[in-house]
Amino acid sequence: MDIERSLSLSEFCLAERISKSKYYALRKKKLSPDEINIDGVLRITPQSHRRWREKMIALGKSKAVQLEVKRRRELAEIAGRAAAKSPLHISKRRRRR
Description:
- Strands 1-3-2 form a three-stranded antiparallel β-sheet.
- It has helices at residues 9-16, 20-28, 46-61, 63-85; strands at residues 7-8, 36-38, 41-44.
- The chain has four helices and three strands.
- The longest helix is centred in the C-terminal third of the chain and has 23 residues, at 63-85.
- The chain has 97 residues and is mainly alpha-helical.
- It has a single domain, classed as Multidrug-efflux Transporter Regulator, Chain: A, Domain 2, CATH 1.10.1660.
- A hairpin with a 2-residue loop joins strand 2 and strand 3 (41-44).
């Protein structure tokens, strides 16, 4: 009998290579997969897992997300340049002899 089984929260996070804290952050943003509660144990069905993956793929392709990624990359570059100019930057330290 080949039945796809549901995943526990730990199994889901392991399968998707995300931490539990990331999962809870996604859940807070209403971006987690649908859960079923079986006597206090959260389970994620295979169908819910598939729908979540499709939703994440579509979200990653959205224009708003791409703009946010570009904005964060630009901010990181600015921060990197500012850090390199700092007199405390590692490249400006004297070598010990």
